[in-house]
Amino acid sequence: MLDFDIGIKWFLFRRSGLVVFAAVFLTVAAFALIPSLRRLSDGEILSFVGAVLALIGFFLRSKFESEKLLMDLFYRFNCRFKEIFESFEARKADDAQSTFKERTATTKANEKLRSYLDICAEEYACYAMGRIDPRIWQTWCKGMVRFLDEHSLRLEAEHELGERGESYYELTLQRILRYAGG
Question: Can you give the pLDDT at residue 30?
Answer without folding.
Answer: 92
